[in-house]
Structures are given as C-alpha cells and as structure tokens.
Backbone:
C-alpha cells in the first residue's frame, strides 16, 4: 500500500502537466486532490502504527551491493508525513488565488503553461519529500532528498521574486554542500557496516572510528535546517519565494531535517554523546541569533524566515539531548513548527496579496479589516511561542523537560543551554511575535489601506484548516504522540 | 477518566460555541446563556463542600504517554475554586448592563459580534482559572496558567479603556516573564524528581537544587501576585480592563498565585522557612507601598488596583509565616479579598456607569443618590480592612496569629516585622475609609445632582457579594476547618 501511495503521488505529474496546458489554473484541484487523498490515508494509518510497523521491500539492483527499495511506515514517519502533506495540501489550496496574482505581475511569460509547470513541480516536490520520509535505505533516502532539492530549486528559480536567479543559486549551492556532506556520511556508514539499510545502522557505534561519520551526517543536516553559520541561503530563499513555496520549503526544512536526525543519529549516541552538548550550544546560539535578527526585520516574509530559522533549531537542541523526552519533544516540535511556519508564510503571503506590500512599517490597524488573518497569525505565533492551546505548547514543554533532564544529569554546559533556551529564547520569541502583531494589526490604519480587499476564500479555508489542526493536536496530543511514543520506546530500549 | 469534576471545570469552555453563535443573534442577552455553565459549575462545587474533608474528589486521565492529568478537589482547593465560580457567575450578570454601555461607547452602534466575543473570552478565562486551582500536575498547571493569559489579554486589548492596546501588551509581556521564570523552576524540578505530579514536589526536600527551584517558581508566581518590584503591570491592567474583568483579574486571578505557592512550594521543607525574614519583608514592603500608592491616586479604578497589590502583601506575609494558622489565614483572605474587592470594583463600576466619571476629585456625596452602591462599597471596604462582621476580620486575624507564631518567644527581628505588619493594617482602614468619604460623602457637586441608583442587574450582584461575605464572616467554620486540615498536612 505504501508503494501505491508513492505511485499515486508521482504518477499524476505528467498528467498534471498535460492537463495544465489546456485547463490552466484549474489543474491545481488535481494536485490538491492527490495530496489530500494521501494525507487522509496517512491520517488513518496513525492509529495503526501505534502497534505495528508497516514495511514493504522490493528488489532493485541485484548486485553488487543489493540495495532494496523499501518503504517503512512507523510511529516516526507517519505522523510527520501526515502533517507535512497536510501543510502541502493547504499550500496548494492557498496557491490558487496567490499564483494567479503572481503570474499577473508580468515578469514570467506564458499563460496556461505556467500553471502546468508550476503545479507539476509542486506535486513532484511533495512526492519526493514523501519518498525520503518513507525510505528504508540510505541511497533511496538520498535519492529522494536530492530530487526534492532539485524540484524546490526550480520552484524558487522560476517563480521567485526579486533576484531569483541569484537566490535560487545560493540555495542550490548551499543545500548541495549539505547534501554532499550527507553523502560522504552515508558512504562512510556503508564502508563501515557494509550495508545501506537504515536498520543496519543500529549497531554502527560498536565499530571503531565512526565518530566522524556521525559528525558529517549531522553537519549535512544542519545545513538543511539553517544552523548558525550554515544559514546563508535561508533568509533570502524563504523571503523571495512565492508564499506557497516558502510555506512548503519551511515545512520541509524543519520536518525533513528533524526526521533525518531522529532516524539516522540515535545509533551514533554512544560516540556523539560526549560532544552533543556543543551541538546543543550551537542550536541555542542559532535560536538567539535568528531571534534577534527577527526583531530587526521590517519585511514580513524576512521576519518569518528568521523566526523559522530560530525555532527550527529547537529541534536540533532536542535531538542532541539524547534523552527520550528530548527526542520526543524535538519530533513533536517539528510537527508543530511545520504547521505553524506553513501557516505564517501563508499569512504573510495573504498580507502581500491584499496590501501589496511586505513592509510592516506601511501596515497597521488591520485587525478590523482582516479578522481571520489576525486569528491565523495568532494561531501561528501561539504554536511557535509554545502557548496553549496550540500544539507548540506541549511539544516545547516536553522538549525542554528533556533538555533539563540532560542538563541536570551531565553538567554546566548542558544545564546552562537548557535554562537559557527555556527562558531567554522564549522571551525573544514572544518579543518579536507580539511586536509584529502590534505593528501589523493594531495602531493606526494608514490611508493607503483604508480600502483593503478581502482575503479570498481558499486562503481563509487554508488558514482555518491549519489553525484548527494545531489546536486539535494541542488539546488532544495523544492523537499523534501515541504513535511517536511507540517509536521512542523502541529507540531507547 | 473524564468525570463530573472535569465536566464542571470544562463546562464554560464547552459552552463557548453556543454562546458565540447565540451571541451573534442575541447580543447582550447572551449573558444569561453564559450564566448557565457558570451556575452549573458553582452548584456542583458547592454540593461537594459538605463532605470534602472526609472524601476529597479526584479524577485522572493520561494526556500523553506517561503524563497524567488530573483534577483534585480537597478542603483547600474546593473553597478557592468555589470562590472563582461564584465570582464569575455573579459578575457575568453585572457584565450585561455594563458591557452594553461600554460596547456602545466604543462602536457607537449595536455590535452583537462584540458581545458574542466578550462572553466567549469570559468563559475561556473562567475555565483556565478553575483549571489552575484543581490541577494535580505541574505541566497541567502551567498549561492552564498560560491559558489564563490569552483571554484576559484579549479582553483588555479589545474592551479596555485608555491606551488599552499598549497596556494589554505590557500585561502580556509581564505575564510571560513570570511564566518563563516559573517554567524554569518547574522543569528543573522535573529533572530532579522525575515526575510532574504536584504531590511529588515535596521530594525536592533536601535536594541541593531545592532553593534554586523554589526561588524561580516563586518569582514566576510573584509576578502574577504583583509583589513589589514585579508589580509594574498591575495598576495599568487592572485600571484599564473593563470593570467586570477587573473584578475577576484582581480578586480572583492574582490571588491564585498565592494558592499555588501554598500547594506547590510550601511542601518543600526548609526553603520557605529559612527565608522567613526575607519573604516577610518583601510582603511588608508590598503591603505598605501598595497602601501608600492608594492614597496618591485620583482615579478610582487605579486606586483599587493598588489596594489589590497591598492586599497581596498580606497574603504573602501569611504564607511566609509557614504556620498552619498564617497560611490558612492567607487562603481565607483570598476568599474575603475576592468577595470584598469584587464588591468594590462592581461598586465603582456602577459609579462610573451612572456618572460617566472616574476621577475621584469630581465625585462626592453620592451616598444619598446611590445608597445600595454606597453600602456595597462600605461592606467591601470593611471586608478588605478586616472589620467584623465581615469575613475579612476572620482571615486577617488568622494571618496575624500565624505571623506571631514563630517570633513570639523571643524578641527577634521577626517579631518586630510582625508588629509592623499589624500596625500597617491601619493603613488599609485608613485608605478605604478616606476613599469612601471622598466618593460617597461630603457635598455633592452640581453636575452629579441628577445621578440615580444603578439598575438592579448591577446592584443585585453587589448585594449578593456583600451578603456572602457577612454570612461567612458570621459562621466561617465550614470553610476554615477543611482549609486548616489540608494546610496542616501540607506543612508537615
């Protein structure tokens, strides 16, 4: 069935392209239907993987290394992929009015062709990420990972704003450096254990000289998640992509990276434990740096870009605590953050759509005009700020309890990181969040915005859906944490 | 599993969709629908009061794997939660005329959506306060504690007066600073005890981290309680919130922090006792500073806001004593301050509503025009000043008896501090009675000649609050006994 799911995701792509050439923008409904269908199936699988693991394997290449093409649905991949595709489907719905406006700007040639190409790439991107989250084998994982990179690069390259050629190139090069590091790590793991199977990594720590493999894989992933120093591509790419693309790029960054960390790094615990405190510190430095940068932004999308960079690194912090609650919290937080960042990029897109500007100093007093957008912003911010009833509250709390446990059991470095992440970083987060709400929605309504248009229906539906999922998961987290817990339990016993 | 205690706590939130949808059609009259769940919860909690000492009620369920959420009503939490329920049920009735007026002033036309939103937020606020009182788990407590901030912020931000948006933001940021300090302590406690259960916090006794943990949780809670130095937000928020909400913020919400200190931090042996003098001084400074600031105010709501701060000083002094009598007195004073301060806020709200004025210099002689309102103010003032036959007398007496306990055998610094605390109670009587005189007696200014008594929907709630505080003042045993029993057990 998992194989069928991947097929259903990839196969409609040519169809979408051909249809798009004749029907134009309506083809988005096909993409939406495909993504929604897979999301529903995954939602149905969440309770299933609480008790069992679904594994399908197919022969691929006979010799000499015999990598099998396998698909694995367990407590980790199913809830993550479900949320990811939920955001993806939401972004598709949102893109309908948004991309129409984008194409009307005139800097991109060709009518229906553009829709055909955009939605084909969009679907292929989503399908590739889905593939990498289900892969059982490092080569297969890397293949899907690179495919996702290429399709997302094309989306930025073809449809971005501003200097999109340059931005997309920076994105491409940086992520390729990360991908290269990952590949080196993967090959290192292969030469050590003699297999590409992710399952065979389990005992890698018992081999000599494997620390560097863990470190290289970590570095590769840290590029993708925009750790401080590796983040050069992030603000530009996120802020200059069309909003639906930024939303899915952000969700991919946080969810795919956290997925990769949770899947690949736990076996390295015995060798990485000693230096993991430094990775925690690195994550904290990123959180604080990007948080302060977010405070300094005037551009709504750049703000969301920095904010997402800041928050994503909580997941790194959580994973490297190497305690059950830390890892559980990191994965839950990536789920909450994926939802929230999707929502916030879409909100900033909607603001651009109705006001024609991304400059916060030109906004103000919009609370009366755009009540649902205000609620969506609040839902996104509450999720990110870890305020109940949004799901971020529970995730962040669990993550931080893991960090504190680690801190009290190892030493001053980890303890200080935990305390600062719990206090200072939280304050910075809430600082820029409420400053933004204040500047955009309250205060005096500028004359230019007196006649601001309504946000179109599909955007509203997306906001409500994403916000509602965050609240539902927040009020009843057992819906997805039971599945995650099954995975964590397996990991730590 | 989810049982009747959960139902009573969540009833207000579960009613939100009904209230919101009906509110869009019914406008202000939806306050009667809002009353249904509040009254239901009140009656349920009241029905438990009889046998609570013998049989505490608890309900648990697993919210996350390994994390148990529960509600626990015993001799201590039940009277507190009952106070919250009673106050919110009474104040919602008062909200109807008051909010009609203020929404009309704000929008200049009928705005059903504003009414619907107001009552929905009100319900969310009440549930979060009840949850804070009954939680059995630190995680759960923190959830409700943070949740409390959101609706109260929105209520100030949307329905407040003056620079409401700026003040709302200030309130929010201070609350969050407090929450962050609290959570740092709470997570450290988890890392040291391996459990989120509130009952397990006592295991910290003797841990080298106990002082750090208790101190950071204490600071977090003291922001909510607006102790001196952490009080900056309080006069603004309480003065500019819509009056019915001030009447919940002030008496019901901030005192919950005192309850939380008793429930969570006192059982950690040795920490609070060791810092007796320090905490006592902090309480005293709050008490006196708040009292002095009251004298300096001309705005009647700001005046009450400072008096709340000063009363929180009493609560804190009682807790600092760490004696059964003192701590129980504090908890009793939570209730008497709740009833008294709510009566005061409702009374000045009525004055503002009828005269359109909140500057004390332009008021005077209203007792003849608004007798019931004046009476409510008087009884409220007696209540927080601790004058019999109101309940405040009992609670303050207990606080003082408790404070003397540790110091009386020798002439010590503690004894002196306790004496100062008692003497400074004259300050409360002074500022309350002086304010009473300024608003309700003396010559009536010409522009107030035509003022009439407020509508029954405003006066009946005040009368109810006053009646309750006198009733309990005359026969406090049904509440004192269960509270003292639980407090004694917590302190052992």
Residues:
């Amino acid at each position: 069935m998992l194989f069928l799911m991947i097929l259903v995701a990839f196969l409609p792509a040519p169809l979408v392209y051909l249809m798009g050439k004749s029907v134009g923008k309506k083809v988005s409904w096909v993409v939406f239907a495909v993504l929604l269908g897979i999301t529903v199936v995954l939602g149905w699988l969440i309770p299933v993987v609480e008790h069992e693991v679904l594994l399908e394997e197919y022969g691929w290449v006979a010799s000499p290394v015999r990598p099998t093409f396998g698909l694995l649905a367990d407590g980790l991949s199913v809830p993550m992929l479900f949320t990811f595709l939920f955001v993806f489907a939401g972004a598709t719905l949102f893109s309908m009015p948004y991309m129409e406006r984008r194409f009307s700007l005139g800097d991109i040639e060709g009518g229906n062709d553009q829709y055909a190409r955009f939605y084909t790439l969009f679907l292929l991107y989503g399908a590739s990420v889905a593939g990498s989250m289900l892969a059982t084998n490092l080569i297969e994982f890397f293949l899907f990972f690179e495919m996702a990179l290429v399709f997302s690069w094309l989306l930025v390259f073809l449809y971005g704003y501003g200097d999109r050629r340059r931005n997309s190139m920076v994105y491409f090069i940086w992520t390729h450096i990360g991908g290269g590091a990952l590949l080196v790590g993967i090959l290192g793991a292969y030469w050590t254990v003699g297999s590409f199977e992710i399952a065979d990594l389990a005992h890698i720590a018992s081999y000599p000289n494997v620390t560097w493999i863990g470190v290289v894989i970590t570095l590769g992933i840290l590029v993708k998640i925009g750790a401080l120093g590796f983040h050069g591509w992030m603000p530009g790419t996120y802020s200059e992509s069309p909003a639906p693309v930024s939303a899915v790029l952000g969700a991919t960054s946080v969810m795919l990276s956290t997925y990769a960390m949770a899947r690949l790094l736990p076996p390295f615990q015995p060798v990485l434990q000693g230096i993991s405190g430094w990775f925690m510190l690195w994550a904290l430095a990123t959180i604080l740096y990007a948080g302060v940068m977010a405070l300094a932004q005037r551009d709504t999308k750049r703000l969301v870009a920095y904010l997402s960079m800041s928050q994503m690194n909580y997941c790194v912090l959580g994973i490297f605590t190497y305690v059950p609650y830390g890892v559980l919290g990191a994965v839950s937080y990536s789920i909450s953050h994926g939802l929230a960042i999707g929502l916030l990029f879409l909100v900033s897109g909607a603001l651009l759509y109705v006001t024609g500007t991304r400059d916060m100093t030109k906004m103000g007093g919009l609370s009366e005009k755009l009540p649902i957008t205000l609620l969506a912003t609040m839902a996104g911010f509450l999720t990110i700020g870890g305020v109940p009833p949004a799901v971020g509250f529970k995730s962040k709390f669990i993550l931080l309890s893991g960090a504190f446990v680690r801190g009290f059991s190892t030493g001053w470095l980890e303890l200080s990181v935990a305390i600062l992440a719990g206090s200072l970083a939280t304050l910075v987060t809430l600082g820029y969040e409420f400053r933004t709400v204040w500047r955009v929605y309250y205060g005096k309504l500028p004359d230019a915005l007196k006649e601001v248009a309504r946000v179109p229906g599909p955007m509203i539906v997306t906001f409500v859906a994403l916000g509602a999922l965050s609240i539902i998961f927040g009020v009843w987290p057992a819906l997805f944490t039971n599945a995650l817990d099954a995975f964590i339990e397996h990991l730590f016993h | 599993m989810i049982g009747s205690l959960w139902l009573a706590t969540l009833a207000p939130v579960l009613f939100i969709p009904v209230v919101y949808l009906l509110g869009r059609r019914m406008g202000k009259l939806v306050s009667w629908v809002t009353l249904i769940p509040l009254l239901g919860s009140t009656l349920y909690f009241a029905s438990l009061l009889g046998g609570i000492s013998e049989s505490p009620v608890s309900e648990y369920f697993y919210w996350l794997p390994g994390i148990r959420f529960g509600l626990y009503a015993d001799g201590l939490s039940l009277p507190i939660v009952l106070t919250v329920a009673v106050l919110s049920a009474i104040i919602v009735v008062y909200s109807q005329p008051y909010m009609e007026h203020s929404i009309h002033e704000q929008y200049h036309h009928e705005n059903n959506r504003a009414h619907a939103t107001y009552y929905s937020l009100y319900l969310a606020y009440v549930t979060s306060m009840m949850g804070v009182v009954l939680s059995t788990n630190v995680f759960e407590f923190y959830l409700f504690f943070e949740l409390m901030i959101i609706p109260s912020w929105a209520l100030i931000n949307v329905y407040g007066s003056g620079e409401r948006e700026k003040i709302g933001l200030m309130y929010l940021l201070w609350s969050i600073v407090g929450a962050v300090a609290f959570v740092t302590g709470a997570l450290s406690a988890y890392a040291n005890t391996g459990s989120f259960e509130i009952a397990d916090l006592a295991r910290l006794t003797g841990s080298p981290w106990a002082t750090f943990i208790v101190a950071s949780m204490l600071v977090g809670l003291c922001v909510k309680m607006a102790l001196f130095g952490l009080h900056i937000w309080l006069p603004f928020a309480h003065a500019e919130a819509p009056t019915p909400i001030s009447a919940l913020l002030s008496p019901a919400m901030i005192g919950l922090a005192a309850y939380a200190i008793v429930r969570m931090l006192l059982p950690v042996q040795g920490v609070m006792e060791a810092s007796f003098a320090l905490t006592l001084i902090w309480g005293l400074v709050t008490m006196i500073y708040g009292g002095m600031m009251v004298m300096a105010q001309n705005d009647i709501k700001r005046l009450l806001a400072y008096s709340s701060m000063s009363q929180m000083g009493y609560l804190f002094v009682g807790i600092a004593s760490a004696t059964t009598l003192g701590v129980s007195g504090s908890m009793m004073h939570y209730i008497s301050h709740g009833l008294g301060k709510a009566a005061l806020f409702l009374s000045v709200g009525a004055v503002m509503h009828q005269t359109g004025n909140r500057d004390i210099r332009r008021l005077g002689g209203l007792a003849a025009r608004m007798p019931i309102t004046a009476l409510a103010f008087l009884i409220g003032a007696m209540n927080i000043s601790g004058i019999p036959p109101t309940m405040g007398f009992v609670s303050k007496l207990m606080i003082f008896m408790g404070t003397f306990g540790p110091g009386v055998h020798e002439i010590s610094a503690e004894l002196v501090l306790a004496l100062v605390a008692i003497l400074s109670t004259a300050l409360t009587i002074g500022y309350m009675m002086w304010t009473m005189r300024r608003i309700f007696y003396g010559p009536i200014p010409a522009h107030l000649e035509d003022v009439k008594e407020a509508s029954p929907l405003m006066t009946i709630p005040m009368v109810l609050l006053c009646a309750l505080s006198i009733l309990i003042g005359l026969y406090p045993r049904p509440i004192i006994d269960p509270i003292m029993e639980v407090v004694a057990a917590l302190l052992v």
Observations:
- The interface with chain B takes residues 382, 387-389, 393-394, 397-398, 400-401, 403-405, 407-409, 418-419, 422-423, 426-427, 430-431, 434, 438, 442-443, 477-478, 481-482, 485 of chain A (CB under 8 Å).
- Chain A has 19 helices and two strands.
- Residues 2-492 of chain A form one domain.
